[in-house]
Structure formats: structure tokens, C-alpha cells
What we know:
There is one protein chain. By secondary structure, the chain is of the alpha+beta class. Helix content is 29%, strand content 28%. The chain has a five-stranded mixed beta barrel. Strands 2-3 form a two-stranded antiparallel ribbon. The chain has a two-stranded antiparallel sheet with strand order 9-10. A hairpin with a 6-residue loop joins strand 6 and strand 7 (187-192).
Amino acid sequence: MAKLILRHFFYLNESIVDDYLSQLEGGLQEGPYTTKEVKSGNKGGSAGTKYFIEANINAGSSTSSETTQTIRETPTAKFNRMYSLLQENEEEIIHPLSGFDQAVYDQIEPAEIVEVRGIAKLPQWEKIAKAVNDTSGLLDIMKALGQDPFADPGALEAYQGITGIMNSKSQDDTVLIIAPIGSPKFKFVTKLEASYIRSKKEEFETEVTILGKVTRRLAKGEKIDIFSVLPDVDALQNLNRAQRRQAGKNKTSTETPLDEKVGYPAIQIQPIAIYQ
């Protein structure tokens, strides 16, 4: 019997799960389904499978029971079924990538489904956004006390640029960077759609397992611009280089958390699920 694994999901893309199940099973069941089980025999005889309803009748007489259940298949149940089908496939569709080396990295191809266990972290941008949220009330207090937190026009422009990005609906999405256990020099970069996130963003920064499809493997010299992975960065266009320096509170460099990049060797991956 296969070992039962109960997963805690941080992220689960139900749309991809449905799509893969429809390909693996030749279709997809819609809505709840009903099961009916019937048992009959002699009282005191071989019982076979025990059901939820039993008849109370005298010894030696016939017995019968019937159970009808309406089953609602949850997204996690669908995932477990999909995972089992992928794992049992003779073509070994799921490729585990924990503790791999450069030779394995060079063989990874787009469209492969991989499973990676590693340490996850959010991009620096998320930490800036959280800090701005945490201090917004303090700014109001400073203004009420007659203090101007934005006496420097550059600071005001940077703040307005950052809050403009934060207010963009698409920024509910986020990016996650995962360093595999045993192979920390390799990185996996993935974009998480807000509608499939099941935990607070800060809870992702722990040891997790990600199952997903490879979309890009970096070659030497290539980098992934973390901020450009998000789909809508129009608000960033209003944030010029000087403002970005101010936003990063770094007056000696043009590099700020908004310029964060992940370089070779790294893989961009479309996430199906992230779990423990």
C-alpha cells in the first residue's frame, strides 16, 4: 500500500490541476457525485465490508444494508488524484530535483514537470511593501504633530511611486525564489497568482515543496528580473532612477530592491502547488 501523505497547501492552482486531470483521464467530472453501496447476507455469517447502516434483526434471518453518499471532490482531493496518476505513469512524468548537480541542470527542458524541496524566500520588494504598510499610520501621526516626513521632495516622489505600485491590483500576485535542499546555488523563480494563494505571504518563507512546469532554464550570463516577472508594472514607469535610489535608501548605488535579479544557474517555473 502506498504511503499516505497529508499535505498543507500554501498555494494550489486548481485550474492547472483540472486541466491535467482532464488529459490524464480523458475528461473531467463536473459537480458532486453520488455513490451507492449495498450489502446482503445472513445474520452472523461472513460480514464482508461494513457499511454505515445496519439492520437490527433476529439471528439466523437475512440482513441487508444500503449506504448512499454524495461526494464533493475538493481541490486538494483532485490534486492528490492527479499527483498519483502522474507518479504512477510509466513515463515518469514527475522529475524530483532535490540535491542535483550541474549535469542534471543542463538536461532540464521546458515543459518538464518537476518537484523541488527547498528554502523559499520572497523578493525584497515584498519587504518594502510590508514596511510601507506598517509605517503608513506613523506618517499620519507625524503629520498631525506638525512634522513633515517628506520634507525632501525626492522622498515624497519615491513614496508616491511605491504606493502607486502597491495599489496596482496585479501586485496582489507575488514572486517566490526557492533554493533546493542540497543544491542551494541553483534557484527556482516562480510567480504566484493571488487567487490561488492560501497563506499569508510571509508564511511562504520556510522549507516547502513546489510542483510545477519548467518554462525557462537560464543559460550562462542570463538573469531573471524579479520585478518584470509580475504582469503589470505600469506604475513603475513613474518611478525614475533617482526616485528608485531614494526608495532603496541607498544614495551611493543605483541598485535597489526594485532592481532585484536572479542570475544563472536558475530556472523559471509555473507553479501547480506549493506545500509541506
